[in-house]
């Protein structure tokens, strides 16, 4: 049974300390105390806690030493990295979270209020002034850890903490998905880029062949990282298809290898590359992005990313009246609903049917690198 002890405070008010002590076989196996301003509240607390502690395994759970969120994240990174390598973004995000004040909390202390507080802190100046999309990413990656913490490791994680926190944060407008881009390059912008990079290729023949990278990305709809991973052995000539290794996917990336059809233009450009390396495009993906990013402002092109070429490529196929199954066989989309974002169409037909750079690129392997004013 619990006991209540009254004592006078310095301000002459009375404090009531409620104490619970549980003995088994003559030994104290658990004790707990808490102080209240009113005796009735102390009595209610004792009654509630005694009922809770009477449940099977309750005393053992109450006596256990909690594990911090930091240790939980470290265990997740260590164990899951052995099973399936995590993406760089997820690893970096979790590593950053565990070093914040949230990482010092014990598992049992993590609740929806703490998660909401973390989100508010992240959006404050002290927490980095991040946008709602970043907060959403943080909670998404942390949620992956919490979802396995109880069933896999037996940690005291409130299964309702994350869903409840998300409900609150959505109502407050503090979490959201990343905004979908609808930026597509114009033919004039692409002409500027191709001319610029062809001139650069003439001056530095050993540099990244950016004209081919740009055109292949557009016609194949492939991401830059995927392009640099394609190997000669990944080609299926009979099907005019390529094995895209580690294709980006919300549920899985590492080991997500997918066969994708290559349109005629992409297939032709691919075969202009010399067989000197195992990879067909033996370049560094970050260097490709950096080169593209530097060139755009120099040419007066605003807010254009290399990844926008994928958007352009998929939209082009729809403008050519390709149906959804056929487009997805090129883009690699599993969920056809995801293709709805590529509906910013400019008309019908192939805008690149008479694009001069397409023909020049395909003949580069036979005639050598051409400048923007060279005759074919």
Describe the SSE topology.
Elements: E1 3-8, E2 14-24, E3 27-36, H1 39-53, H2 58-63, H3 69-83, H4 88-98, H5 112-122, H6 132-153, H7 161-172, H8 187-203, H9 210-220, H10 224-229, E4 235-236, E5 241-244, E6 258-261, H11 264-270, H12 285-298, H13 308-319, H14 324-331, H15 356-362, H16 364-367
Antiparallel strand pairs: 1-2, 2-3, 4-5, 5-6
Helix pairs in contact: 3-4, 4-6, 5-7, 9-11, 9-13, 13-14
Q: What's the total number of strands?
A: 6
- The radius of gyration computed from the alpha-carbon positions, rounded to a whole number of angstroms, is 30 Å
* N-to-C series of helices and strands: EEEHHHHHHHHHHEEEHHHHHH
- Which class best fits the helix and strand makeup? mainly alpha
Distance between the termini: 96 Å
Characterize the largest beta sheet: strand count, sense, and whether it forms a barrel.
3 strands, antiparallel
Average pLDDT taken over every residue:
86
Poorly predicted ranges (pLDDT <50, ≥5 residues)?
A: 365-376
Fraction of helical residues: 40-55%
């Amino acid at each position: 049974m619990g006991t209540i002890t009254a004592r006078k405070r310095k301000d002459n008010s009375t404090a009531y300390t409620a104490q619970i002590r549980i003995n088994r076989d003559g030994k104290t196996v658990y004790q707990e105390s808490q102080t209240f301003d009113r005796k009735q509240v102390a009595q209610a607390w004792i009654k509630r806690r005694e009922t809770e502690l009477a449940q099977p395994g309750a005393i053992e759970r109450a006596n256990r030493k909690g594990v911090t969120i930091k240790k939980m994240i470290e265990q997740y990174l260590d164990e899951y990295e052995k099973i399936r390598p995590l993406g760089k973004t997820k690893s970096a995000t979790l590593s950053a979270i565990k070093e914040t004040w949230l990482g010092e909390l014990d598992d049992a202390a993590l609740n929806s209020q703490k998660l909401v507080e973390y989100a508010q802190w992240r959006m404050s100046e002290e927490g980095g002034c991040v946008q709602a999309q970043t907060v959403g990413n943080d909670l998404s990656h942390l949620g992956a850890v919490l979802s396995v913490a109880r069933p896999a490791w037996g940690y005291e994680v409130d299964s309702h903490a994350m869903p409840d926190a998300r409900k609150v944060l959505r109502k407050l407008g503090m979490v959201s998905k990343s905004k979908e881009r609808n930026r597509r390059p114009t033919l004039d912008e692409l002409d500027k880029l191709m001319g610029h990079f062809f001139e650069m290729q003439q001056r530095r023949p050993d540099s990244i062949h950016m004209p081919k990278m740009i055109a292949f990305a557009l016609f194949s709809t492939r991401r830059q990282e995927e392009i640099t991973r394609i190997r000669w052995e990944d080609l299926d000539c009979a099907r005019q298809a390529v094995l895209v290794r580690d294709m980006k996917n919300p549920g899985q990336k590492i080991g997500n290898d997918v066969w994708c059809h290559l349109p005629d233009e992409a297939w032709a450009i691919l075969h202009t590359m010399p067989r000197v390396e195992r990879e067909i495009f033996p370049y560094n993906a970050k260097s490709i992005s950096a080169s593209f990013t530097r060139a755009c402002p120099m040419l007066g092109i605003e807010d254009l990313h290399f990844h926008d070429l994928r958007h352009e490529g998929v939209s082009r196929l729809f403008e050519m009246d390709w149906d959804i199954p056929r487009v997805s066989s090129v883009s690699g989309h599993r969920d056809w609903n995801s293709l709805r974002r590529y509906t910013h169409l400019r008309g019908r037909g192939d805008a690149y049917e008479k694009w001069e750079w397409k023909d020049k690129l395909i003949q580069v392997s036979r005639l050598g690198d051409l400048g923007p004013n060279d005759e074919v």
